[in-house]
Design goal:
The chain folds into two domains: 261 residues, Aspartate Aminotransferase, domain 2; 145 residues, Aspartate Aminotransferase, domain 1, CATH 3.90.1150.10. It has 21 helices and 17 strands. The protein is an alpha/beta fold. The protein is globular. The strands form five sheets. The chain has a seven-stranded mixed beta sheet with strand order 4-10-9-8-7-5-6, with helices on both faces. It has a four-stranded antiparallel beta sheet with strand order 11-12-15-14. The chain has a two-stranded parallel ribbon with strand order 1-13.
């Protein structure tokens, strides 16, 4: 029997649960083509209900956001931007994109918004090239008396190519909390720029503003890139704006991790980069709680260059994802979201404080945002062992390099985790204290296996079965009180997909 027909038969005469009905219809459509994929989708829901999600870059988006992505908008090519498309028939996409841009501008108080990037990495590439074209290419074109690149001679084009590829960028070092796209040598950003870095203090783990100022004056970069993927303290953007102006650098901020905290007003004033930066990039799926995608905000000075992300960096945008972004931006403008954003920080601070009380090495001693960093090196284990052991005990997070990490980026000496997803579920201080106690129990219960040479393995470990079972039981007790998408009856699908 078809899954949807079975569900309707079982619920005949009852008031329909719209979330369950929508999910059932989607799974039913997939199952007709591939039962294996349908089972994997349902299994993913089961898994996400079975583990405490502490991955700092993940969240749970609303059913409305999900529904906006799963429709026929995906079939439409819309290269270009609103009112300037390379394809006919984009009237409805124009309406959607214009609305998404309007919602983003209103939400963040930005002069201009561009919602086409498929990811944060794409958003950064769009921003990089917008700045390069505005600050490097445009002046050369003006000097040459040209407005069209296709009219340049080979020699003139070579001059521009060389100039574009010979610019400096100063960003936060990856191993001090920066991001791959901030000049890391194994990333295209580190290969297209002469990349330089600033660092956190070895003792405090915090940014040293005077050191950043010194680095800016030493490097004199075109782009001064601020932002992080693993840093726990607020950044004063008003000071960094002054420093950027001293050397004539374009100030770009990557707020992918904390955009939701900005949108919800939990970080404001000098801690809100939109008020100070020339260009701001973000993802839309972390603390912002939207679909997987990217976003660029900028001043009017850079608007025409940012809008040319296609054809310069990306191809066709994803209309269905832009629709989902519009929904997410609208959700983020509500009072409920403001409460949520403040609660994220409260929960991360409660979690960090509880871990400190358990004697764990919390980097910088706490947090100002949604991220908590813990070094496990002093426990005689690696971040990889800790990550996998915690997963075995019902907690999902990721290992992360600590500043000046002695174990490098693969095994690592630490863990990164965040509270955005558990806050979405409604958890609070009591749950943060329980989770911290479970984590401390697991981390202290890990015994590294020995290699053939008798050395401690960096990857393999042993957990006590009784301890593991007890921790899994405690995790289940927490999650049973905070069920993900509670309107969806997973047991129904378990039965239906086996028939």
């Amino acid at each position: 029997m078809e899954i949807l027909r079975k569900y309707l038969a079982e619920t005949a005469g009852q008031e329909l649960n719209t979330e369950m009905l929508t999910f059932t219809a989607n799974v039913d459509a997939v199952a007709k083509k591939s039962p294996a994929i349908a089972r994997a989708i349902v299994k993913e829901l089961v898994d996400q209900r079975s583990y405490v999600k502490l991955i700092a870059s993940e969240n749970y988006c609303s059913p409305a956001v999900q529904s906006a992505m799963g429709n026929l908008l995906t079939d439409k090519y819309a290269e270009g931007y609103v009112g300037n498309r390379f394809y006919a028939g984009c009237d409805n996409v124009d309406d959607i994109e214009a609305l998404a841009c309007e919602e983003a501008r209103k939400l963040f108080g930005a002069e201009h918004a561009y919602v086409q990037p498929h990811s944060g990495a794409d958003a950064n590439m769009v921003a990089f090239w917008a700045i390069l074209r505005k600050k490097v290419q445009a002046p050369i074109m003006e000097r040459l008396g040209q407005t069209n690149l296709l009219n340049l001679s080979n020699e003139e084009w070579e001059e521009i190519r060389i100039a574009l590829g010979n610019q400096k960028m100063l960003g936060m070092d990856l191993f001090c909390g920066g991001h791959l796209t901030h000049g890391y040598r194994h990333n295209v950003s580190g290969q297209m720029f002469d990349a330089h870095y600033y660092y956190v203090d070895k003792e405090t783990g915090m940014l040293d503003y005077e050191n950043i100022r010194k680095r800016l004056h030493e490097v004199k970069p075109l782009i001064f890139l601020v932002g992080f993927s693993a840093y726990t303290r607020n950044i004063d953007y008003s000071i960094l704006r002054q420093y950027a102006d001293e050397v004539g650098a374009v100030m770009m901020v990557d707020m992918a991790h904390f955009a939701g905290l900005i949108a919800g007003g939990a970080l404001s004033g000098k801690y809100n980069p939109v008020s100070y930066a020339d260009v701001v990039t973000s993802t839309t799926h972390k603390t912002l709680r939207g679909p997987r995608g990217g976003l660029v905000l900028c001043t009017e000075e850079y608007a025409e260059y940012v809008d040319k992300g296609c054809p310069h960096v990306i191809g066709g945008p994803l209309p269905h994802v832009m629709a989902a972004k519009a929904i997410a931006f609208k959700e983020a403008g509500t009072d409920e979201f403001k409460t949520y954003a403040h609660k994220i920080i409260e929960n991360s601070q409660h979690l960090a404080a509880a871990l400190v009380d358990k004697g764990l090495d919390v980097q910088t001693g706490g947090t100002d945002n949604h991220i908590v960093l813990v070094s496990v090196h002093g426990l005689g284990i690696t971040g990889k062992q800790a990550e996998f052991a915690l997963r075995d005990c019902g907690i999902t997070l990721n290992r992360n390099a600590m500043p000046y990490d002695p174990l490098g980026p693969w095994y690592t000496a630490g863990l990164r985790f965040g509270t955005a997803a558990v806050t979405t579920l409604g958890m609070g201080k009591a749950e943060m204290e329980e989770i911290a106690d479970i984590m401390a129990t697991v981390l202290r219960g890990i015994t590294p296996k020995l290699t053939k040479s008798g050395a401690k393995s960096k990857a393999n470990y042993v957990l006590g079965e009784a301890m593991q079972a007890a921790c899994l039981g405690r995790v289940k007790a927490v999650l049973d009180r905070f069920v993900l998408y509670p309107a969806i009856d997973v047991e129904f699908f378990a039965r239906a997909l086996e028939e």
